[in-house]
Amino acid sequence: MGFQCGIVGLPNVGKSTLFNALTSTAAAQAENFPFCTIEPNTGRVSVPDDRLKKLAVVAESKKIIPTHLEFVDIAGLVRGASKGEGLGNQFLSHIRQVDAIIHVVRCFEDDDITHVEGSIDAIRDAEIIETELMLSDLESLERRMVSLRKKAKAASAEGKEAQKSIGVFHKLIKLLEEGKPVRSYAPENEEETRILDEAQLLTIKPIVYVCNVEEEKASTGNEMSNKMENFSKKQGAECVVISAAIEEEVSQLPKEEQKEYLQALNLEETGLSKIIRQGYELLHLLTFFTIGPKEARAWTLEKNFTAPQAAGCIHTDFEKGFIRAETISYSDYIEYKGEFGAKEKGKMRLEGKEYKVQDGDIMHFRFNV
Fold this sequence. Notes:
three-stranded mixed β-sheet; single chain
C-alpha cells in the first residue's frame, strides 16, 4: 500500500523543480512561464528507511525492496481557478484524486523568475490557493444540495439518507462561507465521517505547506518561511522548509556524495525525507517489514489496521486465509541478531486477527487457502 501526494501551488513557485528532484527525473518541464505543466506528471519514489538496511544486514538478505509513495505534479493554479481560469476546473479535478496536498509556496526573491501576482508574498499566495479550493468545495456542495433536497422528500431509506447528508452539508457550507476549510470540521459520529468521505471535497485533504527558500536559507529558513510556519499552525497544517534548487542538485549526485554535500550546507537530511515523514503523519501511516534471506521488504499500512489487513497488502489470499502472524518488534530483531535470537529470548509473538500492527513490526504470516 502506498499513498499519493499532489504537489500544488501558484505557477513558478518551484513545484516541477521539486517534483524532478524528488523523482530524480526530468519528467516535469521546469520552465519560466505559467501553465507549463498541464497534464499531471506522476512519479513513484522509494521511501528512505535506515531500518530496512539494518534488517537486511542482520538477515543477510540478497535483495532490499523499499515501500513507495507517489508524487503528482499538478499544474499551477491561479485566481479564479474554481471558475475555470487557467484551466482551473481540470487542475482541481486532478487534486481531487490525491490523498494529501503538498502545497509549495515561494519564499524567495529572484528577478529572473516571474511571479503570476507580480510580487512575492507567501501568505497571500497560500490564501489564493486555499480560497480557490474552498470556492470549489462550496460550489460542489451547493450543487449536490439541489438533488439531495429532491430525494429527501421521499419517504424511503434513500430519502432518510439524503436528509442526513443535507444536515452535514449545511454545516460544511456555513464553515466554508466563514473562510474555513472542511478539514477544520470535527465529525460528530461515524455517520458524519462517512458522509464527509463520500463527498470527496478538496479542503478535507490533509496538507503540508512546503516553503521553497533560497539555497543559503535552506537550513534556517527566512522571514517569509517563518510567517508561513505561523500561518500553517493557525490552519492546523504542517510546514516544511526546503530549497528545491538544492534538492535538484542533490538528486544529481551519486548516493555516496549526497550526505557530504548536505553536511556542507548544514542540512541533516533531504527535503524528500522531511516531506515523507510529514506525509506519514498526515495520512496516519506506518511501516512493517517482511524479512528473509531472499529479500528484506518494507510495506506501508494505515495505523490501527489489523494483522489480516497487513497480510492483504502482500496478497489478498493471505488476508482471506489468515491464521496468525509471527511478529517481532524492530528493536528486538536488531538487539537479538534476527529471528532465531528473538525466538530464543521469547521475543517472537503469535498475533491473531484482532492485533493492530505497530510501526516497525517484522511479520511472517501463516495462512490457509
